[in-house]
Design brief:
heterodimer, A: mainly beta, four-stranded antiparallel β-sheet, B: mainly beta, about 0% helix
C-alpha cells in the first residue's frame, strides 16, 4: 500500500545531541513537508521541498536542517541549536499544484531528557 | 493573503446528536479547502476536500461540509455523533504552495 512512513515513532534525546527523523513516501509525490505540533496547538511548518535537491524554510526553521537527495526521502535533523525540541513531528507529502491534499505520516514524538 | 479561522477551540456534543465545527477562511483567489481529523498521537487523516466542484462535499465517516463563498465559510457537519468521532479537527486552506492550517477544534462526545 502507498503511504508515508515516519521513524522512529518515539525518540529520546539528551540535550546537546543532534537527532534525525526519517520520512519516506512511496506515493510518487514531488512535494514533502515537515511540521511541528505542540500540545493543544496547530501545525507549524518547519521546511518543505517541492523537488529533489531543493527545499525552503518554513515558519520555524531555526535549529532544524533537511535534505532532499531522493524523491522518496526527506529526513529532518533536529540540531542542538533548537532550544525547545520536545514536540510531535509530522511529515507530509502531496502532488504539486494547488488542489492537492497533504498525506501525513503517523508522526514522531521527540522528548529531550 | 490567506488565512483560516476555526471559530471554536472545543466542541462537546452528546452521542447521537448533530456535530457542527465552524471554519471561516479568507483568500484572494478561489482556494482549495480541506478538513482533517487527528486522533491522539496519530497523523492527520483527510476527511474531505473542496476543489471548486460541488459546493456540498461528502467525506468519510458520514461527515460533510458546505462551501459558502458569500460567507467565506466551510463548516463541517455530521448528523449523528459517534464516540469514535472524538478527536482534533483541522480546517486547511491551500493556494499553490501556500498551505494554512487552522488552530484546530477538539471534539468531545458525551455518552
Amino acid at each position: 500500500d502507498g503511504g508515508i512512513t515516519q521513524s522512529p515513532k518515539y525518540l529520546f534525546r539528551k540535550e546537546g545531541q543532534n537527532v534525525t527523523l526519517s520520512c519516506e513516501q512511496n506515493l510518487n509525490h514531488d512535494a514533502m513537508y515537515w511540521y511541528r505540533q505542540d500540545p493543544g496547538q496547530g501545525l507549524r511548518l518547519i521546511y518543505y521541498s517541492q523537488i529533489v535537491n531543493d527545499f525552503q524554510k518554513g515558519d520555524i526553521a531555526e535549529g532544524y536542517s533537511v535534505s532532499r537527495e531522493k524523491k522518496e526521502s526527506f529526513p529532518l535533523t533536529v540540531t542542538s541549536a533548537q532550544k525547545n525540541p520536545t514536540a510531535f513531528y509530522l511529515c507530509a507529502s502531496s502532488k504539486t499544484g494547488d488542489t492537492g491534499e497533504l498525506f501525513f505520516g503517523e508522526g514522531s514524538r521527540l522528548t529531550v531528557l | 493573503a490567506q488565512s483560516v479561522t476555526q471559530l471554536d477551540s472545543h466542541v462537546s456534543v452528546s452521542e447521537g446528536t448533530p456535530v457542527l465545527l465552524r471554519c471561516n477562511y479568507s483568500s484572494s483567489y478561489s482556494p482549495s479547502l480541506f478538513w482533517y481529523v487527528q486522533h491522539p498521537n496519530k497523523g492527520l487523516q483527510l476527511l474531505l476536500k473542496y476543489t471548486s466542484a460541488a459546493t456540498l462535499v461528502k467525506g468519510i465517516n458520514g461527515f460533510e461540509a458546505e462551501f459558502k463563498k458569500s460567507e467565506t465559510s466551510f463548516h463541517l457537519t455530521k448528523p449523528s455523533a459517534h464516540m469514535s468521532d472524538a478527536a482534533e479537527y483541522f480546517c486547511v486552506v491551500r493556494r499553490a504552495s501556500k498551505i494554512i492550517f487552522g488552530s484546530g477544534t477538539r471534539l468531545s462526545i458525551r455518552p
